[in-house]
Amino acid sequence: MASNRPNWPATKVTSPEAPNLRQLTSLITAVVVIGALDLGREVLVPVTLAVLLSFLLAPLVDQLRRLRLGQLPSVVIAVVLALAVMGGIGTLIGAQVAQLGADLPRYQTAVEKKVQSVQGATVGRAEDLLGSASNLFKRAAPARKPETASVSGAAKQQDKAPLPVAVQEPPPSPFALAQRFLSPVISPLETAGIVFVVAIFILLQREDLRDRLIRLFGSRDLHRATIAMDEAAHRLSRYFLTQFGVNVGVGFVISIGLAIIGVPGAVLFGVLTALLRFVPYIGTWIAALLALTLAAAGPDWSMLLWTVALFAATDLITGQVIEPLLYGHSTGLSPVAVIVAAIFWSWIWGPVGLVLSTPLTLCLVILGRHVDKLEFLEVLLGDRPPLAPPANFYQRILADDPEEALKQAETLLKDMSLVDYYDSVMLQGLQLAHSDMMRGVIPPDQLMRITEALLDIIDGLEDIDEPVKEEVLASAGFDARFPPLAPAPALSTITDGARETAPQTGSPVLCVAGRGGLDELLAAATVQLLAREGIQTDLADYAQFSRKRLAEVNLSAVTTICVVSLDAGQSSAYLRILLRRLHQRAPAATLILGFMSDTPQDTQEHRGTVALAVSSFRQLIELGRPESSSDAALQTKTPTGDEMHHASFTAESDRLSPDSI
């Protein structure tokens, strides 16, 4: 059975805090960059639009070049098609606006009547109630005597009516009329011209610009620079093409739906929806508000309600079904990052920045993913988990939040087995805790809480994952749904002079916990996993094999002894002594020591013991099976005398090769 352990990033120990000078330099750099973006918007906005347009047109240019049209004709055809599309959209919007402008007074009257009816049903009734209450208070209050006021004769005189004054301007000249008409259009046309000219040169010189950027920023690491640029180009092109296709489809559906409902200007609102969907999250509903304004001009409220239902259904299906299938469930940005980026870029560059916020932020995330000094951008803005599951598991335990750790386990166990979860998450999390214990940062009371919480988690995971092999467990003579989670007297203890032995059938296994503060957790998890495999397992602790109590131990029926401890990766004298005692008491039993690191460095002290070293629960289970124990016993010989200090045993298997120690 192959392992399903995911390839999570290794948990790294953070370095000490950076000097204050470096933090100050980073802050000054950020302020300078933001100021440059604000001051240089007149130049940066067209250049940025040109770069993003080149990403959008690059796949089309590549397709045309595959048809052997040449680079220059391919670029020209792609740009002409883009101009034609933009011109057609502008013409369509203008025609629809002109058509709606002719009927605008009628729509205005209908909307005003709807507003008045709503006000009469809500605000009007509230005013009537307030008026009635005011009259009641006036009747209850005592009447006041009317005050007489003397009116002067000057006040009785009527003011004279003001003289009308009219200001007449001379008729505007043709040049003034042209300037008044073209001034709102000149600036967008100028920006569009700059964008298309720059985009043409970018498309013509793509390879040369790529090489220059690599020479400028990535000459020391060509591999990383090439991967970063390829990923940015691929993801941005894919994002724009997919988003463009989705927006066109949504706009078409909205146009057809509004036309069926009877909303005026259905084509205009469909085009606006397609364009505004480039604005994350709120673009669709901005177009919906504009459409609802005219939907309110209908004869009744049904048109308005159907319009709301159309936009809601379209946005829900697109956002929850279509886009996840096309984008692979994510664009690489976290939802919070998308909102913050939209606010930031709209503050810097206005409406254009709002539209470009997602692709610009995606570029920053890719940059942070491949540049070490900018890694914080990927952590803050990316959608990858900020903590690896082992670190997240240990952090939740430290925060006294075992419920969240259990929820994380239930989520991960949907895609992996319990043994893989123990290997890739819990074991590595316990190793982090063991490192903190060695540094002396975990007080005894906190260690007790951690142990209790983890025992509860192990107990809670018993009913999760693949079903227990009940038919095998029944033949073993015990119920594995409730494995012992604390050391209990079994076949290795004496009580009141009489030996207590559990029913022994098959090949019993003894699991011995080390003396570390977290070793009993490893033993509990080991017993649980072996029980799920139908292997009868008894649990003991290190104290039961002390020199004084060793004579009381009977290991005649035990075929496999597993010693589990987080100290196994170190040169621990007590583990070597324990293994020698166990080998003397049960020379025929297979000894297994866990858990070593993935690449343990065998020392002379470790080679003085007689055991098979494992680094994971999966390896331990494989060796704990009866057939594995028999094979290991046949492949080993019992050392005697001085040979014990040089013996080394290995288990030959195509699945694992634990090191002999």
Question: What does this entry look like structurally?
Answer:
- It is a multi-pass membrane protein.
- Strand 1 and strand 2 form a beta hairpin.
- This protein is elongated.
- The longest helix is centred in the middle third of the chain and has 40 residues, at 222-261.
- It has helices spanning 20-39, 41-66, 71-102, 104-121, 123-140, 153-156, 174-204, 206-217, 222-261, 266-276, 283-295, 302-327, 335-349, 351-370, 375-381, 389-398, 402-412, 418-439, 444-460, 470-476, 519-532, 573-585, 617-624, 626-634, and strands spanning 494-495, 498-499, 509-513, 537-541, 560-564, 590-594, 612-614.
- Helix 2 packs across helix 7.
- Among the domains are: 22-114 and 187-204, no CATH class; 387-466; 468-661, 3-Layer(aba) Sandwich (Rossmann fold), CATH 3.40.50.2300.
- The strands form two sheets. A five-stranded parallel β-sheet has the order 4-3-5-6-7, sandwiched between helices.
- The chain is mainly alpha-helical.
- The protein is built from 24 helices and seven strands.
